[in-house]
Amino acid sequence: MHEVTAGASGKVASRLELSAGALAANVATLRKLSADTGGPRALGAVLKGNAYGHGLTQMLPLVHPLVDVLYFITPGDALMVRALEQARGLERKQVLVLGATDAEEAVALARAGVEVVVGDGSWRETVEELRRAKLEHPLRVHVHVDTGLGREGFTPGQIAGGELDFLREASDVLRVVGALSHFANTEDVTEQTYAESQLDIFEGGLMALRASVPVQEPLQRHMAASAATLVLPRARFDAQRVGISLYGLWPSSETRLSARLVLGRVPELRPVLSWRCPSQVVKWLPAGSYVGYGCTYRCPEATRVAVLPVGYFDGYARLMSGKAHVLVNGRRCPVLGRVMMNHIIVDVTRATHDERPLTATLIGKDGDEHLHVENLADWAQTIHYEMTTRLGAHLRRVVVP
Ligand SMILES: *Cc1c(COP(=O)(O)O)cnc(C)c1O
């Protein structure tokens, strides 16, 4: 049987390079920041969305030794951690599923010692399933307090009003070990007034929680994602859930600006990810030639082009057509015409002297030039979170120093 590969494969395929050194440097930077305002706190890595598109399979072994907690959305991803620990004889780390969990998954997570978030009333029905499973240890849960994001969680009023009372009668199978919330706009602003109000509401939620449900002290309180970790010391609590900054990307330009104001300096974050693509062919097109679907580009003069086997299937957004460029030999080369499903065509007239194969950098450094994920996100009219998360799961990912 032939192995079926969805994308281009072999030597002529693009690859993502993941820098282990950049990752370690980012973790050190984030830990240092936190220690500066009285630690020690737990530093946790958010690995949802295929590790923000970087590749969970490749990132998990790199991240595991560096952090204290691992956060996921889906139970299946969280269970990968236990499999890895068993296979490699690693110490067991705290693992928390932030997303929705059905009853069957809850049983599997309890058995694996993975913790979960109680963020809605569906847990009432799960209690019976957990009892039937005759667990050795109760499932460890964190209560999500909705402080103003309007997503999952209970408001302090709902907690005080008895919506979590079912936890009191379920202490044989559910043990409350933590409480969390999530900010709504920390990365969108430099004035954190809404976040401050969310913090006040969280404090109220903690009081209501302790008054209505038996909790295991010290309760692990956590609210800060990257932006709050970087610029809102009051939000750091007992654990920090860092996603985007772990990968060496700033949550936003507002957060970077805030860091300068709040910390008096901008900590260095090093992008973990680079994207490189070898050419499929390099050739001359005569003056007047059209390039790509829709004939949207016409060469004004004889042009040396490189055809690169990468396209919107791989996560190189079609919206970048007519705007994007790539780096070849340290020079910016415009993408000509439309981005296709599996191809782009770039102008390399000034970047090379001949038609030999070349390697283009789509994200990352080449010589003195640097293409940031944020540049691609701007061209694609989105944010860098979406840009990296949409990188195809099929792309080859290699760890580099
Ligand atoms: C995604 C997410 C984070 C991480 O956010 P970043 O901005 O990437 O650091 C933290 N907590 C929750 C609940 C999340 O959904």
Q: Could you write a compact summary of the structure shown?
A:
Catalyzes the interconversion of L-alanine and D-alanine. May also act on other amino acids. The protein is of the alpha/beta class.
Describe the structure.
By secondary structure, the chain is of the alpha/beta class. The protein folds into 2 domains: 4-15 and 272-400, Lyase, Ornithine Decarboxylase, Chain A, domain 1 (Beta Barrel), CATH 2.40.37; 41-263, TIM Barrel. 31% of the residues lie in helices and 24% in strands. The chain has helices spanning 20-35, 48-52, 56-63, 75-88, 103-112, 123-132, 156-160, 165-169, 193-212, 226-231, 253-263, 373-379, 384-389, and strands spanning 15-19, 42-46, 69-72, 94-97, 115-118, 139-144, 174-180, 215-222, 239-242, 273-278, 281-285, 290-291, 297-298, 303-308, 325-328, 331-336, 344-347, 359-366, 369-371, 396-400. The strands form 4 sheets. It has an 8-stranded parallel β-sheet. It has a 5-stranded mixed β-sheet with strand order 19-18-10-1-20. Helix 4 runs parallel beside helix 5. Bound molecules: pyridoxal-5'-phosphate. The site of pyridoxal-5'-phosphate (PLP) has 13 residues, from helix 10 and strand 9. Pyridoxal-5'-phosphate binds next to helix 10 and strand 9. Residues 272-400 form the Alanine racemase C-terminal domain. One of its GO terms (molecular function) is alanine racemase activity. Its EC number is 5.1.1.1.
What is the assembly state of the chains in this entry? single chain
The unreliable regions are 1-5
Count the beta strands. 20
Q: How many structural domains does the protein architecture include?
A: 2
Strand order of the largest sheet: 8-7-6-5-4-3-2-9
Q: What's the architecture of the largest domain in CATH terms?
A: Alpha-Beta Barrel
Helix content: 25-40%
Beta-strand proportion: 15-25%
The radius of gyration is: 24 Å
Name given to the CATH homologous superfamily of the largest domain: Alanine racemase
The name CATH uses for the topology of the largest domain is TIM Barrel
Name the average pLDDT: 96
The first-level CATH class of the largest domain is given as Alpha Beta
List ligands, each type once. pyridoxal-5'-phosphate
Helix/strand class: alpha/beta
Shape: elongated
Distance between the termini: 36 Å
